[in-house]
Design brief:
alpha+beta, 3 strands
Amino acid sequence: MKILYIYALTDPIDGLVKYIGMTNNPKRRLSEHLIDKTLTKKNNWVKSLIKKSKKPIMDIIDEVAESNVEYWEKYWIAQFKAWGFKLKNG
């Protein structure tokens, strides 16, 4: 059984979670976020941090079986929104 990670990206300035995602390699995925050039709310936020010499903080919030990772990613997105976080997820 392959395990994947559900992670949160937190703003180092205000301490608020801004994005929930999934990956099999957290270190590589964080690096990918830092160089992604597509026009999304998440990437605009990351670029604004980089301009201030900051980067998002990645925290693993769950480890789940690959077979049901999409369910858990949606669950955590809904949970953080229910807690009042203004996520940048698409």
